[in-house]
Structures are given as C-alpha cells and as structure tokens.
Amino acid sequence: MTDHIGQYRGNLRYAVDIVMCIDATGSMGPVLEEVKSSALSFPGRLKEEMAQKRKAISQLRLKVIAFRDFADFADDALEESEFFTMPGELDKFESFVRGLTPEGGGDVPESGLEALALALRAPWERGLDRRRHVIVLFTDAPAHPLGDPKARAAHTYPAGLPLDGDTLLEEWGYARSRQALMENSAKRLVLFAPDETPWKNIADEWNMTILFPSVAGQGLEEVEMSEIINTIAHSI
C-alpha cells in the first residue's frame, strides 16, 4: 500500500469540503481565540488523522461563515469567505480567521440558524470518487428562530433563506426530501453548541448530526476538538 495522496483504497480520490460557522459575538470573546486556533490547526490535524487511518485527502477545501446578530447590528451580522483550497490557499484562510473579532450580539440568541442555512447553500464539490461535506458550527448561545421579522428587516439579510426550522430541515434533507440541498451520503453536521433549543432539537431530529454541548464563557476543550477531528476522519 503506497503513501501517495489519492493512492489509498484502490486509487479512490477523496474530496473533503468543510464549512466552519463561527459565532463572533461579544460573548464569545473568552473562547473565540481558542476556536480560531482550532480552526487554524484543522487542516494539519485532519491530514495527520487521515494518515493514521491509511487514507489521504485528494482535495481539501475550507470555508468560514462568521455570524453575529442581524437584529442587533446588520452591517457585520455575517462575514463569509469563499472556499479556500488547501494547502495552496492556506494563507488566505488563516488571514480570514485571524481577522475575526468578538463584538456585538445584542440579546442572548444570535443568528446561528442563518449561518447554518447559508452553509447548506455552499458550492459543494460534486466530483472525485468519494466526497465528504462537513459543516462545523461553534457557538455558546441559542439562536433566533428563522423568519424573525427584526432579523429579516436588516438590509444585509440574505435573500432566499427558509422562514422556519421545518423548511431548513427539508433543505438539509431527511428521508426522501425533494428540497435537499446537500448530497445525503456525503453530508455531516457537527455542532459545538448549548444543549438547548434549537441546537438540541437539530441534533435529535437531523440525520448525520452530532452535538458537543458548550457552555457560555467556557473554552473549547482539547478533548472535544480531538473528537470533532475524529468524527470527520471516521466518516470518510
């Protein structure tokens, strides 16, 4: 068995897309640096984990969606990058992540569901032999319900987002949903979020989803980050 990329398991080529949805509100201040550090270490750590499993990723792309609160301050409610292809665009990815600052947020719930809805709409890779499309969401807060009038009134609110959680679930794809935006065999959702609505409901009701409960003001533990890396590596 050779060590060259793309030569494992009968020359199958693996494409991995990861979208990181990161809460960048003021309450994340104590832990945002840890989340950013974890995000920056993601490419290298995933590559190492895959190598230990005698697999290789032929194409790895990373995208970041930072979110705050549309109802609080619309201008910086979302910061969205393109997909960065590793390792060639590692510097662009690192620059975007390092530029995230904890600010705003208003009331306790944030616009996490809008970020998740945008992540579903990412231009996922559709080629190569095997694909894995992963959304990882980091937050210490619950989320405003989709369709909230104050949020939708914001001039920066993205057009075409679902108006409720049921429609979002349909777009994630469940059973034989005809509205699914993601490839069912490829998708995974990893939540680092409070064990409360809506994240608990999503973890309970959505397939291919795992929740690592977070607590406001407490950091991302190394064991939790390792579990997230393992979850992704085991699923490929």
Structure notes:
The protein has 236 residues and is an alpha/beta fold. It has a single domain, classed as von Willebrand factor, type A domain (Rossmann fold). It has eight helices and seven strands; from the N terminus they run H-E-H-E-E-E-H-H-E-H-H-E-H-E-H. It has helices at residues 8-11, 29-52, 90-98, 112-120, 149-152, 165-172, 199-205, 222-235; strands spanning 14-23, 59-67, 78-80, 84-86, 130-138, 187-193, 209-213. Strands 1, 2, 3, 4, 5, 6 and 7 form a seven-stranded mixed beta sheet that branches. Helix 7 links the parallel strand 6 and strand 7 (209-213). Helix 2 (29-52) packs across helix 8. The relative contact order is 0.18.
Largest sheet: 7 strands, mixed
Number of DSSP strand runs: 7
- The succession of helices and strands, N to C, reads HEHEEEHHEHHEHEH
Helix and strand content put the structural class at alpha/beta
CATH class category: Alpha Beta
Summarize the structure.
This protein has 236 residues and is an alpha/beta fold. 33% of the residues lie in helices and 19% in strands.
Q: What's the structural blueprint in terms of helices and strands?
A:
Layout: H1 8-11, E1 14-23, H2 29-52, E2 59-67, E3 78-80, E4 84-86, H3 90-98, H4 112-120, E5 130-138, H5 149-152, H6 165-172, E6 187-193, H7 199-205, E7 209-213, H8 222-235
Parallel strand pairs: 1-2, 1-5, 5-6, 6-7
Antiparallel strand pairs: 2-3, 2-4
List keywords for this structure.
236 residues, single chain, 8 helices, disordered N terminus, Rossmann fold, alpha/beta, 7-stranded mixed β-sheet
